[in-house]
Amino acid sequence: MIPLSWFLAVSAILFVIGFFGVLSRRNAIAILMGIELMLNAVNINVLAFWRYTQPENPAGLVWAIIVITVAAAEAAVGLALFIALYRLRTTVNIDEVDLLKG
Amino acid sequence: MALFDQWVLTIILFWPLLAAIIVLFIPQDQEDRIRRFSIWMSMVPLILSTLVFVDYGVRFLQGTGGLQYELQVAWIPQLGASYHVGADGLSVPLIFLTALLTTLSLYYSARTIHHRVKEFFFLFLLLETGMFGVFMALDLVLFYVFWEVGLVPMFFLIGIWGHENREYAAIKFFLYTLVGSVAMLLAFLALYFVTGTFDIVKLTEIKPLAGNLWLASLVFFGIFLGLAIKVPSWPFHTWLPDAHTEAPTAGSVILAGILLKLGAYGFLRLLLGILPHAFAYWGWVIVGLGVISIVYGAFVCMAQTNLKRLIAYSSVSHMGYVLLGLGAAGVALSGTVSFFDKNSAALAIDGALLQMFNHGIITGALFFLVGILYERAHTFDLTRFGGLSGKTPYYYGIFMVAGFASLGLPGLAGFWAEFFVFRGAFDIVRIWAAIGVIGVVVTAAYILWRIVQSVFLGEFNTEWEGKLWDMTGFEKVTLWPLVILMFAIGLYPAPLVNFFNRAAVELLTQAGFMF
Amino acid sequence: MDGLLFLIPALPFLAFVLIVLFTNQDQKVSAGLTIGATAVSWLLGWYFAFRAFFDPHGVAEEPIRLSIPWFPGGYSIFYTGFQVDVLTAVMLFMVPFLCFLIFVYSVGYMEGDPRFSRFFAYLALFATGMLGFILADNLLLAFIFWELMGVCSYLLIGFWSFRKPGETHIDHAQVKRARAASIKAFITTRVGDTIMLAGMVLLYAMTGSLRWSEILAPETLEKLADKIVSMPVFGVAPWATVLAILIFWGAIGKSAQFPLHVWLPDAMEGPTPVSALIHAATMVSAGVYLIIRTFPLFHVVAEGSNSAMWFVAFIGTFTALFAATIGIAQFDIKRVLAYSTISQLGYMFAALGIGAYIAAAFHLLMHAFFKALLFLGSGSVIHAMHHGHHVSHEHGHGHEELPIEFNPNDMRLMGGLLNKMPRTAWTFIAGGLSLSGFPLITAGFWSKDEILADAWHGGHMIVFWTLAIAAFVTAFYTGRQIFMVFFGQPRSEAAKHAHESPNSMTVPLVILAVFAIAAGWVGIPETFPGLGAVVRGWFQSLMGAQLEALHLEHETLPFNAAPLLISMTMAVGGLFVAWLIYGRKPLGYEDPLARPLGGLWQAWHNKYWVDELYQATVVAFAKWLAHFLYNFDDRWVIDPIVDGVGRYGRRFAGAVRRFIDEQIIDRIVNGTAWVSNVLGEFLRQIQTGQAQNYLLAILITVTVLIVLGIGVG
What we know:
A: mainly alpha; C: 31 helices; elongated
């Protein structure tokens, strides 16, 4: 059986890749993809812990499903925002979206 | 009936406020709707207060007098302040008078106010609630709140819709009255610290500070200042001519008709009710100020060339009779003078109350009449008129009735007040009353000499050719109720005197005036 | 039937209301309403009057009455109502009857006036006032009607005080005079009324009632006479005296006695029927009626120390002579009569002052008849002069050159009217003879003689001789008037073209003339030789019943020739001297007495300058005081203090603003803002607005925290 730590390692690597994408990309779509990666990393983490520690309790599965749902909703809202942004500014480069700058 | 008993006053009291709030939601450009709505809404308190008047009369005949329609609900229990309202023979006629004059004023203003209509009607309805509140309140905090509620709308009515010098007048009115209010508030607090209650009925029973003349006098003069400014008594009267002269017609009517009565009402309800000993001790002061107001006001009228200002000063003189009557009752209470008839003190108060009611009707009518002339000529200058009796006979006729009522002609309302006041005062404070009588003669002189002779008789000033038309329909409708009341009270004063006399006797008995 | 009592004043009032509200456009209906209502009142009045005449003792003891509760006063209730006793009955005989006659006369006199209906409305209101006044069973109700009469008097004097467009026959001077006269009348009488009001309320306070029967009850009066009051200035007196004098002031004003007489002559600016009815026959005698009514109050204090009676006698006697002398030097036909009215009312007060109750009532009644007659006669003359003036203009008799301005009232422009208008002339002469007290046949002789006889009998010699001289003067100016108006040659075109007035005017004159002569016969004293046996002093015994009911003694005077002869001599002598001066030779435009009498004439002609004196003192003082107080109020003291408080309040507030607000509070507030600003400038550098920067910051922070946490842990 594959030890738990391997799953955690994969999860951590995925999370860091995703986080790096969020921080370094300028394209909003790419940032969104980074976020999705991070969410999946979390899912792997959650499921791994569930399977290895309390398989009789379905809470871990439920959490994973909630995260997937939230991710879907987030992607939908995020994409809609970017479309609106594109219509308004003809760009999805987030460097140019800084109206909140003090 | 129990429901009616408890809630009728509250409905009368808050109905105008409700109407005022609704007026705020009517769009500004629908002026006609605002006017119609306000007038109709003001009919409700009028009808209810008429009902109360009749109902109280029925109860009177059945022998139940005193406070009726009482309602007491806890309000600020931490302070011992409650929402406590009620009415007796003192306040029922005055509530009716308030409702009547407000409706007539709104009706008249609907045709004459064309500028910032919404605010005008909003403020006017708010003012009505304030006035009702003072006459109904049986709690000092409530009394004070409504006292101030009445002040603010009047300030704006003068300041926005007034004549040339309106801002000066409005501020003078406000500051003067505010100074008085503050003194009064301090006195109220003093009463609270002594007794631990704000309830007027309880305070009337307790009669606080009876043994402590020094402190009682301090409290007395605190309240006295607030009331005397409102009445207004000489020498606190100079806000009145300015406020009256500058106020719009309806404002003057309410100011003279009701607001001055708030002060006089306070004398009875607060000073005589709560502090009878101080009232008796200082009765002389009230008599003195009253007589000075009568004579002084009347003479100053003779020197006026501004018609509205003249009538304003006549209010000072006429309210002097109220003070003379009240003060005489106080002197009688003190027991320091000998007099012949046990009825005299009650009669003096009857006279003061009658004067309050009648002055409301008569001076209200006079201010309407002056306003009607102003609408046409745009001036109050007496010297520019003349010979109007031939041009505007209807106007002349109504003015003569109001003028004669004002100078106390028997058969019209004004006479009874003078008769009762002097009937009481001549028995108790003879010399002062004898001086006060001079005012009666001078009143005849200024009404006839200054007003009738310069405005109605003599040569017509051709400047006004074709510009002064006789009274129109809505002006007649405004004045007829008042004229009818002048005649009705003049011929048969019993309905009013019944109420007032009962209230006066109760007050005197309560104050310890026993025979 | 007794319940109908209220109808007597109510009917004319109803007529007034109907005219004002409905029929004011229709002159005939308006006049008809007034006259009809008065006629019914008259009949009703006579019904009650004759009931009293047939049973004087019963009615005097137990008056016919109608009473309702009026209002509560303190712990008691005030009743009001109407009553008829003998005194009321006597007035009720005269008042509605005269009203009726004069209203009929007015129809002719006022014809063509644009305010005809209004005139009749006012007349109806006046009838209400007078009838209500005599019927009232208490002083308060009487006072209300008394003032109502005052208002009517005011309205009627000023009736010609304004013009409607298109009106022609009134001139500007007339408008001005009428305006001033009406206001003067109201305010002058108001002075008296106000003093009377004081008396009334004091009386009410002391007796607890104002009903005649209660305030005049002997026990009440005794109480008032026993109580002593001490006053500043006037000293000590019984209350009865004080009250009586206060009430008497009302009568002084209403009956135009010195010093409040000034309004009555000016009141002649009103239409003549008004002068006849209000200012001669009824309203002005209301004052006398009031004193007759309250006579027990005056009489109760023992003689000798009774200053109330003394005061009444003094005012009456003085006024009788004072006004009579002024009457000598007047040219206005109505003004002569006005002064004669004042003088005759003085007679009545003098009579009351010496206790001659019956004589005063008798003279009041007789005077009403003959003075109404004289006024209506003079109205007829003025009417004729007016028309004569118009006719002479229209017929092109050219512009007449007169040394004086034309005035239809001016007796200097009359003369010789006896032939032009015989009915008016003869009735006027009858009235004039009655006024001068022409012996034996005229009413005025009997009533005046009664007063003089009482004065003589009571030993009041000063009163007697003053009144006797006044009687001489009265006869003299009456003769002067008759000779100037009706005899000699016409002294103007208007007088030449004058002609008799219409029947509606002359018929009342004739009826009144009958009364002016014959009415006096009812009062021929029982002791008078010959005639006395026929009449047996009917009027005296009638009023005697009233006196008995009031518990006052009344005696039949023994016959005494001395006062009788003196009175006759005075009357005939006065007329004779008048004939000598005015009747014997043709008159010019200047009075034959003006030059010989010099300054005295000037004093009479200018009414002793009383008007000017009042103008210079009372009126001027009131005006000065008004302005002084107003300046005190507005310019000098009170308002400047108020404004000053306001101004210094603002200055103080300004100082507070400059030194505390600006220097301290504002600096603190501004300093806070400055610090925030600097901090903000620094912090905004971090705010890039880019989420990635923030995330990086979060990453760094979290990393640092974790490292630190591990380090610590």
